[in-house]
## 1
Amino acid sequence: MDILAESTKILADILDIEGREITPETYLIRELGAESIDLLELSVAINSRFNIEVNDDELFLRTLRLHLRTAAGEGRDAVGYLAEKYPALTVVRIAEILADMGGGPVLRVKDILSYVAWHGKN
Amino acid sequence: MILNFHGKKALVLGGSCDLALTLAAAMMEAGIYPLLTFRNEEGQKKIAERLSPGGGSYGACYLDFGERDSLASLLAQGGDEIDFVVDFVQGDFEGYVAAADEARVYQYFNDNVSFRAELLKKVARIMVKRKKGRFVFISSVAAGRTNPGQGFYAAAKLASEALYRNLGLELGRKGITAVTLRPSYIRAGRGKAYLEAHGDEALRLVPTGRFLTESEVAETILFLLSESAGGFNATELTMDGGLTACK
């Protein structure tokens, strides 16, 4: 199954943005304007389309800042700590996320794809 | 009025109580398939005795609030086609706040609030997928006006009302709405025993001079499930003959 094609189709339907280019690098919130209710719908659609259990907090990186505070409080390395919390993300992607946090919500389409691919395998 | 219910499916939580059974019979007559939950053999038997003779189509499934495995099997049986949820479930807990057993308090809120939140999340996600759904929560006037000893009952009802209210305001744009009905004295269920003991005294407080009947509450719930009542969302409706308006 082409996860990217399926995911972009789901996103276009939920966000009513048919025809607009969506790539793995596209930001869901910053660029596509996804709101909380859209993310809920996305989570339900992913669960249904790919038949995987979805943890919304993990899928949408909602607890990212909380994890960072915990890592700092415990004197842990942030990248290593986040890699444990987000097993679907690569260390390279986590480092990219940390460098990008000042620009707003970091969630990109490729994070969704990673989640689906990882949970589909595990 | 739009009262077209044909082909709809309703999950009736706490389906073995008298009011739920009256509602289920009315639903079957209106073309709704009710799936009623029971938590013990007695409840299962009561559902069969009341509904089987009518010859209509209904389902019954075990669900015990607090027992998470029973929720998984209910959802497996309920499938992906739940149009309505009517929730009658409420555990009993009478006792003064200053006298209650702590372990029982934790258990009570786990069963009546936390479990309900999990159930609502899962059913709401089914409805989100279908982009439609309607919840009716049966609360009580005691949620707003309690007597001594009803603190925990009222607290669980109010917390549950809040969950339903938020479902309605969070998912209204996606076609999913929720409303709470707060009925007062009904000669049914746990209200029956109370009215047998205190009926005359209670009746003096009701401006209409009568108690509610099961069938009028069931008809009101059916109306609340209808498209015509869709404007009632994220709110609580009191059905008490004017009882709580009195000083």
Note: The CA atoms of residues 42 and 147 of chain B lie 30 Å apart.
## 2
Amino acid sequence: MDSTNLAQEITTHLLSRGLHPSPTWLTTTFLPTIRPTTPLPALKQTALFRLLASDITQTLQRTPSSVFPPDIHNATIRERRLAGPIAVQVLDIEDIGRSRWSQVEALEAAERGETTKGREIIRAVRAEDGGEGADADADVAGSGGPHKLVLQDAQGVNVFGIELTAVEGVGVGMNIGAKIVLRDVLVARGVVLLEPGSVKVEGGKIEGVHKAWREGRKERLKSAAGITERG
Amino acid sequence: MGGRILCVAEKPSIARAVAQHLGGQVQARNVPGIQWVKNYEFNYTFPPWGACTVIFTSVAGHLHTIDFDTRYRSWNSCQPGQLFDAPVVTSIDDDKKAIARNIETQARGARTLFIWTDCDREGEHIGTEIRDVALKSNPRLEVCRARFSNIERAHVVNAARNPVPLDERQANAVAARIELDLRIGAAFTRMQTLQLRPMVEQMLESKVISYGSCQFPTLGFVVDRYFRVKNFVPEQFWHIRVMHRKDDIDVTFNWKRGHLFDRMAVTIIFERCIMARTAKVVKMQKKPTSKWKPLPLTTVELQKMGSRFLRMDSQRVMKIAEELYTKGWISYPRTETDQFDRGMDLRKLVEKQCPDGQWGPYAQGLMNGGFNQPRQGRNNDKAHPPIHPVNHVAASHLRDDEERRVYEFIVRRFLACCSEDARGEATDVEIQYGTEIFRTHGLLVLQRNYLDVYPYDKWVSSQQLPNFTLGETFEPTEAKMLDGKTTAPGFLTEPELIALMDANGIGTDATMAEHIAKIKERAYVMTRPRGRATGGGTGLQEFIPTTLGVALIEGYDNVGFETSLGKPFLRKEMELLMKAICAGTTTRNDVVHQSLEQYREVFVRTTRQINVLKEVIIPKIHSPSGPARLNASHLTNLEQLEGYTSLLLHDTLHDSSALDPAARVGRAGRSSERADPVALCAIRGAGFGGPSVANPARHVLDRRTRADAGTEHLRRGLRHFSACVSSARSPPQFGTEETREGFRVTFWCGDGAGHDVRSSGD
């Protein structure tokens, strides 16, 4: 298969997931790295995987329908629907159902290796290959929400999203940089209202951003709660 | 057969009571060398042995004591770490020698030793001590024990007729615990005292900074909560409330989400509710509901309820319960069991309460058909039934009001257990308004049942709801977006502390109250009535750690969280091992060895990093702005003032070169004749005996102190106090005033609260 056809095949596949790759990314970033002998289905998977791990402001095509409209922040518009599909990446997520301080307490207990079950204090056993503290976050991830997110589209516009009804895959345990595709989504006063019917979490993450977000999470929660560290 | 049977109880009161049940009017003979232990002699026919002569005597708790070999007893004799393996010797305390001699004497010529110690682990161990002493003078003695859990007559007779063997495993578990407590306690106490005491001398009441493997986690819970309260940050939240008036009834619907911590989100959601205009009933459910009667009473529950409803601390409640048991009014008060044996005749026990003036008619109602088998809890220690009344006693025959309150609680709880659950009808209505669900709940109490005899539970009907039908739509009368603030948790209360200890395996039901009392006695924590700041007050005590208490826990946490002595983990493991010994899955030696190794590791790490510990303590206690980081803005609440005043007094003590060192080490109250009165005043005043109840902001140091000496020392201390806070925005003022009793020192701080330090001469 020649490279034009190949690019076409892959684009079609990605479009079916709501992701419109930019031709530049496809031809100059992605295609040169693949081995020509790789079967097509595997290539499609690889392309999707790479795209989900990328920063979409660099890798997705900007068309009027695949990004937020220019007046997206206009708060005088009570509500409107955007047909999309609009692919966005998650830059921040916050559980607004719990006080920030209680989240700080939970994080600190997890750092000490403790969790509580009712009144009992339990020593959490660290996973052998704990990686970047994934286990410590697990409990916090189980929190109820709803969540407030910062969503960024392919042109780099940031918009708040509120989880009106619990959406699978959305939680403080999710990766930063994870891709979400919005279809026929409700926007009220410049805020995207997330509901299962209009939201699909595709996953992925942006490694560096994710790491920085994790590391800074406790401090951000603290400062949002209005705590200033004493000397 | 016949012959002589030697019976030995754990304490004299039990010996007398059981002897009277078995022998009627029995003769009491004095025991040489110890006045308050008696030997009761009578004849009794035991089914296994026939008609026998019985000598019924008692010990007074443990006979044996273990200590290190004399070479290791002095504090400077060895490195504290050596105490993990130093040889220990078992001996009989001087004050127990007469008791042991009595048992030896009486064992001679007896055919059987029949042990009547309390049926718990500790009692089993005391039983083996008695056996060992008796076998010394009579190696051929047959040994058995009585299984009983109250000293009601029929129960005692039944126990006398059915002797069982001693449970060696339980005794071994206790032996292991005793050895571990001695070694670990002594090693850490010596180490931390030697290392830390020079730094905190002026803060300290006694010469020892004691360590106990239960004490520290207990203290840890208090410190942990203290920091949660202190560090707490209030946050604003927002919520939506919907009101609707129907059939002349105003109904409030609450947001299913509770509240959210984001104003923008709530505003947007609120607007969408308003835009929706109408709400729709999506759930309308009426169903019978009941409030379950309480579970049969365990020790932990009794202690918790005691502090909550009877206004006594856990130790006091246990002491009174112990007395009620000894007098034969209630069953053994140390039990984990919350299920009554099916075979127990509970009706008979209910019937005994019928004559009572207060709950008699209720008990009669149970007898007339209201009786219901109690709920079964999940715990059974296989030794004792739940705490229950075994006999009725009229309130006038009880010693005082406290005894009456405890007895009344136990009886009411028992009657409640034998009653029916309270019944009612619950109504749940949910409406959808915009995207959101709002709900309201109604309760109609139909039959109070057990609630009639158990005023400690509350369950009352709510306002009646109008009729809603599923699918009905309406335009709510009012919808509001409201805001509020999170509030800090309270300091730990005793019921909470007991619950934490229980859940984390710190101490047993029998010892929890002691551990709590111990950390108070060591001045690691202080208590005060909850709600004092707001003027309300429920009589519940709350715990606040002292500067020293905070420093110790923080210090150990800094040495290593994993196995910090302030955390419950190590002790919990030890407690599980005790249980394993009782179950026969491990042995005493293995357990001692294993636990010692664990604690030795912490010990080694702590000594290696002792500076970490010191670093926490030094700034807290020595810096001019310690304890509790003193400055005027921090001086607004009482507990810091308490820390302040005790610092002041201890500085007074420290400054005085004329003090007899013995006075400082002397136990307050024991050696008052010899000790320097000022020193004593300071020593005893460490906790100020707690704030006085009438005016909690006022501390009265009511000690026998010579007015002249005391005044001078206190003046000096107050100058120091004043200097300490000279940088403060509103330095405290103080004045002294001679009074008839001695003198009074009052100082005022920024908050305007006056604080008295009064000394009365004698």
Note: The first helix of chain A runs from residue 3 to 16.
